[in-house]
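BUG: 3D viewer hangs when loading the predicted structure for this chain

Environment: internal workstation, default settings.
Expected: structure renders.
Actual: progress bar stalls at 90%.

Input used:
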Amino acid sequence: YYYIIMYFLARCFISIGLFFVVYIMMLSRLAKEVQTPQVKTTSDGSSSLRQHHSGIIATAAQEATERAKVTHGTVEKSKKKKKKKNNNKKLDPQTMETKSATSTTTKNKKKKTNNNKIKKDPRCQVQYNNDRPYLEEDDERYDLGVGDGDKGRLGPCVYVYPDRYPPRQTWLQDVDWFHLRNETSTTQFDDTSMPNHDAREECFLQCLNDQDQLYDGYLLAAATMGLPKVTEYLLQHARLNPLYTPPPYPKRYRINAYQAAIMGGHVGVLDKLVQGGTKLDTVVIDEWGRTVLDYISLKGSPIRPYQALQWWNVTIRVKETETESEGRKEETTMIQTTKEEYGWNTTSDHDEVDNTCHLEILDDLDSKEFFKDFYVTGRPFVLRQHAYPEEIASFSRESWQQTRHFQPDRMRHKVGPTAYPGLTGQHYCATKMTTQEILENKPCPEMPLLKMIHAEHDDYFDQAYQLYEGDPYKAGFRKLPQWFGYNTSPGWQIFMGGDGSGATLHWHAAALNILYIGIKEWRITPPAYRGFTGQTVQQVTAQIKDEPFVMKCTQRPGDMFYIPDFWGHMTVNHGFGIGVAAIVSTSSRLYMGSFTNDY
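Structure tokens produced before the viewer hung:
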């Protein structure tokens, strides 16, 4: 009975469904017949509906013709009027004179822009807020979008300028020198053209010439990017204020154009700001009452003494050699004759260690002094014997024997000719090496002539800093949160290399570097002379050893080096070396503007 009932119910539902389908189809057909006009066939075989459409088309065509006649007449009148105006202009001798810059209209400027290099160079762009998805909220809140040198833009004017660009002769044969990009660049703008200082300045000059309003932040950004021609234009034509600083970002310090030019080592820009040297010692540029001359007279200034002499005939006398107490002399002799250091063989085939140091050497530095004397002035420095003795001892061979990851004879590590070979088109060695093999400079089968080094991040700091529960802030890096804020999250690196190895020339954000084992020779360059390469440290040293913009200093166990933003630097190990570095990105740091400790 159940199946019989289900059978009849199913047939009922199907019948009802079919009824509704037929009913809807009939309604649809009826609606079409109501809306469709009756079509009558004429004697010539055409239909009355077609004749109706033809009449509508003919009427529309006639109206269009009438409108065209009216428009044509208006255009003709306009042409005649314009022609008459041009004839009158030719007859008037005053109109043949060159228009002054102040009488140029915005329309004429835009017309000019369409015919110049700004359209030929693909790196030169004009981007407004709706075209810039990367415009951060902070840019609008704190007026950084007006001019931001770090992002390479002056308001809507943008020039895509890569931080690193492969040299013409490859990374292994040449250096991407920031100050020589004009000499290695071409004048053709295509996909193969290289970055060019002159092209960048030309781009900004043309773009700024089209702007209805120029802001003081543009001058700060131009000084940050090292644009002397743009700086001169903004000073002379726009009368912008070089002492302007953007509205303060919470707990962050903002610099002015004078300070930006000095921090970057952009002597050409600084010359425009001080008007050829007339304002070197007459304009106060910070809250401590210092002038430009005070800044560039400091030891290790990005504006080098030879530049002050060449540009403004000013002699800057700084002591270039480290002051040696009797204790330092004894320590130097001891280090040079010692072959074993904390259980590691630190024998070196290099020449005797040079005590010359172009940097300020300090025993201690609080946050106020760091900010005033080094951060704002853009100077590197050395804190001698800053790491604790027991901290240095924790990197001994005996201590590492007790760890798992750093066990000298068992654990193998990735090695390469540079810390990060991929940045310069190179590769890691296919064979991993133990710490002992790195110490012995064991050759890599694929690169037998290159010395290998190892670098890694902080994944195993719990073993490297086991004495401090894996926290480097309790050890040699205790100053970092004081100087940059307790919310700072640096990028950590631990590295090791044998005698003659080292980090080849490169640059990045500000960094603190502590050496625990060995002796390390540093060569550094101001940001305006920074470079990036894949060449060996020996090749780069041979190229730059006599350059006047290069500074050098020697690092010993326990010393901490501070390298400011974007300074070029390279190192050479004298014997086996182990060290740790912290790179403080510009986005993560907190600048002490109020000198408070509640960061």
